[in-house]
Amino acid sequence: MSENIDVILKEGRKFNPPDEFVKNANVTRSEYEKLVRLGKDAPEEYWAQAAKELHWFKTWDKTLVWDPPKAQWFVGGKINASYNCLDRHLKTIPQKTALVWEGEPGEVSTWTYRELYEQVTRLTASLRRLGLKPGDCVAIYMPMIPEAVVAMLACARGGFPHTVIFGGFSAESIKDRVQDAEASVIITADFGYRKGSQIKLREQVDKALKDCSTVKYVIQVQRTKSGQITSEGNRSFSKPACFNSNGNALDWHELISSISHEETQTQGYAEELDSEHPLYILYTSGTTGKPKGIIHTTGGYLVEALQTTKQVFDIKPYDLYWCTADIGWVTGHTYIVYGPLAAGASIFMYEGAPTTPTQDRFWAMIERHHISILYTAPTAIRAFMRLGTEPLRGRDLSSLRLLGTVGEPINPEAWMWYRENVGRNHCPIVDTYWQTETGSIVISPIPGAVATKPGSATFALPGYDVDVVDKKGEPVPPGGGGYLVIKKPWPAMARTIHKDPERYKKQYFSEYPGGVYFTGDGARKDEDGYLWCLGRVDDVLNVSGHRIGTMEVESALVSHPKVAEAAVVGRPDSLKGQALAAFVTLKAGVVQKGDTDSLNAMANELKAHVTKEIGALARPDDIRFTDALPKTRSGKIMRRLLRELATSGQVKGDVTTLEDLAVIAALQKDGEE
Ligand code: WT7
């Protein structure tokens, strides 16, 4: 039975890893202390030691050049991420399973490191045939199929920065990203499976393509062939004419089977890239209407992806490791692809929804494949909690030895439920705090060395200088709360925002002087020095672990012809963490006062509109219509008031009455926010 959570929290109860785990841990307590000391006294030396684990075509001349906000790591070094994830393992573990995949309908395929290497080199050679040169960007819009991993690694191999676009984004969002990144190729699939239906990805790409003049080719995987390993066919490959929006896309399997063994050998090589060569652009939401193209480079990023995978996930040769994130998010980049594969781990990948076709799908897969490490999100855990323990009953989860969470604060109740029902009280939990911008995990327990407290991500990893500070930048005393900052550069940090270095500087390095990075998150330091990450302090929301900018949703709403003005705020939600509440003023005469039916229809129309403009993940949960938005005298929207209104429970579900917020605003003091 669950112990009383209040008692556990009040006592500040810590959970120590089981002896068995400690005995075999990659990082023991004494090693941990040494690493922490080195990371503090000589951070550059600490990271340089980590970098030596990787293969470098040429070693670096200088570990760090730091001219805030510009960081360069392992300067002068030559490296390739794909080489490190594949070729480096071919001598030692060519027959080891690199990847086990389950499609949502149930097909399973298993790829060895050699097989993965084969497919990747074929695709790199194909992309070179199409004329791609280092620096040319490739957009990837794919379901969770093995080919998505192949695509990323093939791009990395050729030095073609990839930009992965989450499969839940709409054509509009694809267009914005492809245009900003100036991608010349889009790799996609005809469809993917989700909750039993076919999600037509290619269709969205085609819609976007009309406005994507930089795109020369579309390469499409036929979903029904996913997971099949392609070898040389007898087709001849003739370079197709430039792709146009009504022309044919190149078929993935035809393309890579048309490349001969010889051509794969000569043209599938890993480009020797500068350590600072861009590995990828990943778009993420900020406080304006326009997503930020976060740029990560090769050397520093890979060093930390590998280092943190080994430390935090305690990866062993016999593990089957499953990170449930989508490759469209940074978690999928660092902890499905680059970290685990650089570590030579076996990864598990699943295409579909957690409860399709039955509520026990996750647990059935863990049992079937003997998955030993599970890394998922608090939202997923809370969703499982709601289903109760029935789907878990009788499932053999004894292969599990470590659990992880990421993406949002985990409430202690969910943490305890995860520990008891999934971890069966013997798996340590790593609550990992990080961001798209940080590239890899910043705050997390190292499982064999740090005792955990439910709800706390515990301590910064070695090599990091993390603190909680007040508005002036002064560290808060133990027990205090404030803003989470990182005071020294780290190898996997973002390098800039694509085409907008000013925004990068302003967003992250202008709050505090001296090259201090501001995360945008609030945090608390408790009496034992444990860190509790509390979530965003800016106008960025975290809905089901996905970052959404309120301004993006607002601009989507006002792009509807009937909307005059809109304000979007977050309200707490017991499942998603935060839900989106929109306050909308319609243009005059659109709907008659008191006409509830029309208002409800309008609300649905607006929700559909946002889904079209951004994607279903940004669909507002509530829409409330108002004659006017409450504003201060200087014309600023009183967001705090709106947040209170949205939270107070007066807004329930879809109720969409037209109300006079101006009256409420008048009751509030002027000058707020
Ligand atoms: C934001 C970053 C990189 C992970 C996936 C999300 C929140 C992330 C935690 C955690 C509390 C967390 C923060 C952060 N966050 N992990 N363990 N505890 N909050 O990446 O979309 O870049 O979002 O997610 O608010 O700033 P992202």
How do the helices and strands line up, and which of them pair or pack?
Elements: H1 5-10, H2 19-24, H3 29-41, H4 43-51, E1 62-67, E2 70-75, E3 78-79, H5 81-85, H6 87-90, E4 97-102, E5 108-112, H7 113-129, E6 138-141, H8 146-158, E7 162-164, H9 171-181, E8 185-189, E9 192-194, E10 197-199, H10 201-209, E11 217-221, E12 250-251, H11 252-257, H12 261-267, E13 273-274, E14 278-284, E15 292-297, H13 299-312, E16 320-323, H14 330-342, E17 346-350, H15 361-369, E18 373-376, H16 378-387, E19 402-406, H17 412-422, E20 429-432, E21 466-469, E22 481-486, E23 496-497, H18 501-509, E24 517-525, E25 531-536, E26 540-543, E27 546-549, H19 550-558, E28 563-573, E29 577-586, H20 596-613, E30 622-626, H21 639-647, E31 658-659, H22 661-667
Parallel strand pairs: 4-17, 6-7, 6-8, 8-11, 11-12, 16-17, 16-18, 18-19, 19-20, 29-30, 30-31
Antiparallel strand pairs: 1-2, 3-13, 4-5, 9-10, 14-15, 15-23, 21-22, 22-24, 24-25, 26-27, 28-29
Total beta-strand segments: 31
Bound molecules: 5'-O-[(S)-butoxy(hydroxy)phosphoryl]adenosine
Shape: globular
What gap, in angstroms, lies between the N and C termini? 46 Å
In the CATH hierarchy, the third-tier topology of the domain at 112-280 is known as Rossmann fold
- The unreliable regions are 241-247, 651-656, 669-673
In what order do the strands lie side by side in the largest sheet? 5-4-17-16-18-19-20
Helix content: 25-40%
Mean pLDDT: 92
How does CATH name the architecture of the domain at 112-280? 3-Layer(aba) Sandwich
SS element count, helices: 22
Cα Rg: 25 Å
Beta-strand share of residues: 15-25%
